[in-house]
Amino acid sequence: MITDALLNFLGLGANQSMVGAAGTSIQIGNVIDLLGLGVGVPPTNVNIGNVTNYGAADAMGVGANRPELNISVGTAFVTANAATLEVVLQAAADSGTPTYQPGAWNDLGTSGLITAANLTANQVIARLPWLPPFPPGLRPRFLRLLGRIPSATNFTAGTIASALVTLVRDDQFNKYAAKNFTVS
Fold it and tell me: Count H helices, E strands: the chain?
């Protein structure tokens, strides 16, 4: 697997705790700036014509080699009140001058609700394809991952081990396929 440090939310070996107050959403790792400069840094591109907010028209060029987000658990999750985790990929446009901060966050994709029983150590919990931005016309500059936890629930233990952007699936995804033959 080849990864780029600027295009990863949480690199290998950087476990992030998902323990927090009840009903608190937790940002997983870093905010990715698709320009590669960082939040609060003005773009260095030269404008010709009308100035617009900087961002990618289609979330990094979804094309033949569609990037995929791969999220894995470090320490197993524990809950006393039936908490679930939903991992959400979000995008925001550049708010513009003078601060160059993310604008309103929009959901691009979600893992769905995952119970603590499925949040075991070393488990890959989400493989999200890189999706075009929504709503139409959004030119996202910033991307983030958010761990949503329903109100009145929380985890007492659990970490996310990594949240990487890859160009291919590099696991043996067919290992759970039904075996409909026998060898004699």
Answer: 0, 9
The count of structural domains within the chain is: 1
Q: How far apart are CA 80 and CA 9, in angstroms?
A: 28
In tens digits, the chain (184 residues) has pLDDT values of 455 666 788 888 789 999 999 999 999 999 988 877 778 887 776 455 555 556 655 545 555 667 788 899 999 999 999 999 999 999 898 887 788 899 899 998 899 999 999 999 999 998 887 777 777 767 788 889 999 999 999 999 999 999 988 876 666 666 667 766 666 6
Cα–Cα distance, 56 to 44 (Å, whole number):
15
Cα distance between residue 72 and residue 15, in whole Å: 10
Q: What is the CATH number of the domain that holds 32?
A: 2.60.120.1110
* pTM confidence score: 0.80
Domain of 133? 5-37+67-166
The answer as to whether 17 is a domain residue is yes
CA-based nearest residue to 79, from 157, 11, 178 = 157
Is 93 inside any structural domain?
yes
Question: Is 29 contained in some domain?
Answer: yes
Cα 183 to Cα 125: distance, rounded to the nearest angstrom:
33
Asked if 92 and 31 touch (Cβ cutoff 8 Å), the reply is no
Helix/strand/coil for 132 = coil
